[in-house]
Amino acid sequence: MFPFCRRHTYLTRRIGRVIKLMLQEWLIPATKGLGLRLQKGQVIRVTDVDGMQVADLAAFSDRDYTERLDPGVTMDVLGQMYVSPGDQLYSNKYQPLLRIVADTVGRHDFINSACRPEMYEVLYGKSQHASCYHNLNVALAPYHVPAPDQHYPFNLFMNTVIHPDGRITVEKPLSKAGDYTELQAETDLIIALSACPCSESKCNNYDCTPIKVEIR
Ligand SMILES: [Zn+2]
After folding, report:
1. Cα of 115 to ligand 1 centre, how many Å?
2. Which of 27, 55, 61, 138 could, after both became Cys, cross-link 156 (CB 3.0–4.6 A)?
3. Which residues pair with 185 in a beta bridge?
4. Residue 84 Cα distances to 21, 60, 108, 115, angstroms
5. 124-135, pLDDT tens digit by residue?
6. What is the mean pLDDT of residues 103-111?
7. Closest CA to 180 of 88, 31, 57, 41
């Protein structure tokens, strides 16, 4: 099953002129991924359709695939591990790639790398499990972005808690049905998203559900 895409054309009449606006939207089925090209200035809205579903987001410069979204660099520049509207997300080369323009949740994760088959083997004793690592690689392949040895995404809606004693736990997402985050491209990008297929933990509240994506 592949992400469902719809293209809408809206006509708006303003001061005698007809302005044509395009809106693209996709529904990523539960446990699947999506790749897309996002031009500088375009805004992507990522919506948690049913609530408590994580979406891993990876981004690469459309001009240089060795430049990618880097959570560690972003936390270094921002001096914080949580983002809010107005904050920029940075690349491994310390350049801004995306800007948060709207967010109805306020809790996302920069710490965890993408889930991958080996993680499910080690933590849950399951082999050949679907994973964000695989979904992101499949999503990037049509754009000829080479698969990295691992993805370190911006994990939308993921609720990671660092406790005072140093423990790190993944709790249920705070996102409710219809909650969303909007990000604006600061440069031309290739974006990959994965509706995280982990049903074994609180990460997605033990139930994998779809993610809606729109370019506005
Ligand atoms: Zn995942």
Report:
1. 4
2. 55
3. 98
4. 27, 21, 10, 25
5. 999 999 999 999
6. 96
7. 57
